[in-house]
Amino acid sequence: FRKGYEAGACDFILNEKSKHYNGLAIEFKNPNGRGSLSEKQEAFIERMMKNKYEVCVTNDYDEVVETIYNK
What we know:
Layout: E1 12-14, E2 23-28, H1 39-50, E3 53-58, H2 61-70
Parallel strand pairs: 2-3
Antiparallel strand pairs: 1-2
């Protein structure tokens, strides 16, 4: 079974420009605090940041909401 996603891609990507960014990428991690980024995720995030995307890696719902509304 294949989802069609790129390996390492963030869980949520918003391709909407703002004054400071070309979009937003969010990687959700398990709230138990044991989640870590894979090498493919780190490379994807680095590429997004080079393309002027705001990137949020979090396990906190409030941080996601704050990032979306304040960027």
